[in-house]
Structure formats: structure tokens, C-alpha cells
């Protein structure tokens, strides 16, 4: 299991690198990411959130199976958008409504090195977009108005003072 990287760590602002090989190291990383996500009671986790700057994220939303996305790209989004409350293991204790497309089509490789595409809406579509943002150095608070973002960051800092 890994420690989760939290807001303020510069790695969360960086773009993650493509995964060049689907080797045992990647499989180990994925297994440890699932353990870390479940321990944190999350439903999605990007590799950068455990300090690994690779283009990998995982999901496991209620009613769906475990999913692994390696070198993912969203290739289509719906015109329709939805505002739903989001939280993040890297920003513990903070939630906010975020506007995102209702549905996406994503293309990625799975943990067996097989290319796939998936149409996803609802909670899975939301989690996919949230986790892909992490791979591009974007936190959900970055999608808020500047005023709301600043207010939530101050709240987060107050909650996490030692």
C-alpha cells in the first residue's frame, strides 16, 4: 500500500508520462493502487496520487467491476453537462459541485496490454474525467471559480494544520 499524495505536493500539478511497457512493475503498481484506494474508501485513483507520474488510473464504482486505464484519452464528450459534488483522496475533507460532460468515450489500454474503448456516463463517467484530470495536473478544485477555489483551499489548509 502507498501513501496518498495530498494537495500542496507539486507532483499533483505535473503531467504524467506515458507508460512505455506493460511489465511486472506496472502490475505491482496497479495492485498496490487498488489496495490504497480501498483503504482510503475511494472509487478512483490516479498513479500520481501515490507519487508515481505515470498515465494510469483505476476505478471501482458501485455496481461496476474494477477497471484499469493505462495511457488513456477521452476521445468524445457529450454536449450535455451535469453539476455533481466531487471529493478527492488527495484533497481530504473538501467537496464541491463540479460541472462536467454527462458522458464520455475513453480509449485506453488495460492491465493486459489490450486497447479498448468505453462509453461511460453516470458515476463511472464522472470518475473517469476526475482521474484523467489528475494525469494532466488538474485537481477538481481547479475546475471551480477562482473565488470558490480560494475559499476551499483556505478551508483545507485550516483543517490540515498540525
List keywords for this structure.
Peptide Deformylase, 27% helix
N-to-C order of helices and strands: HEEEEEEEHH
Name the CATH superfamily classification: Peptide deformylase
Q: Strand-residue fraction?
A: 25-35%
Net shape: globular
Low-confidence stretches: none
Total beta-strand segments: 7
Supply the CATH architecture: Alpha-Beta Complex
Instruction: Kindly give the count of domains.
Output: 1
Give the strand line-up of the largest sheet: 1-2-3-6-7
Biggest beta-sheet profile: 5 strands, antiparallel
Helix content: 25-40%
Report how far the terminal alpha carbons are from each other.
24 Å
Mean pLDDT across all residues, rounded? 95
- Give the CATH class: Alpha Beta
Count of runs of 4 or more consecutive helical residues? 3
CATH topology (fold) name: Peptide Deformylase
Radius of gyration: 15 Å
Q: Which structural class best describes the helix and strand composition?
A: alpha+beta
Characterization of the model:
The structure is a single chain. The chain is α+β, with helices and mostly antiparallel strands. The protein has a single domain, classed as Peptide Deformylase (Alpha-Beta Complex), CATH 3.90.45.10. It has 3 helices and 7 strands.
In short:
With 162 residues, this protein is an alpha+beta fold. The chain has three helices and seven strands. The longest helix is centred in the first third of the chain and has 16 residues, at 24-39.
Amino acid at each position: 500500500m502507498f501513501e496518498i499524495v495530498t494537495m500542496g505536493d507539486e507532483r499533483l500539478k505535473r503531467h504524467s508520462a506515458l507508460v512505455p511497457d506493460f511489465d511486472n512493475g506496472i502490475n505491482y503498481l496497479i495492485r498496490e493502487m487498488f489496495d490504497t484506494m480501498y483503504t482510503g474508501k475511494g472509487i478512483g485513483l490516479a498513479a500520481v496520487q501515490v507519487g508515481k507520474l505515470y498515465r494510469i488510473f483505476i476505478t471501482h464504482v458501485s455496481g461496476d467491476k474494477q477497471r484499469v486505464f493505462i495511457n488513456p484519452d477521452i476521445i468524445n464528450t457529450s454536449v450535455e453537462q451535469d453539476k455533481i459534488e466531487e471529493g478527492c483522496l488527495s484533497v481530504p475533507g473538501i467537496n464541491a459541485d463540479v460541472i462536467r460532460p454527462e458522458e464520455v468515450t475513453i480509449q485506453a489500454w488495460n492491465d493486459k496490454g489490450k486497447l479498448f474503448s468505453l462509453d461511460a456516463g453516470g458515476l463511472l463517467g464522472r470518475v473517469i474525467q476526475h482521474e484523467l484530470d489528475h494525469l494532466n495536473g488538474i485537481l477538481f478544485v481547479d475546475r471551480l471559480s477562482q473565488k470558490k477555489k480560494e475559499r476551499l483551499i483556505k478551508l483545507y489548509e485550516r483543517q490540515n494544520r498540525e
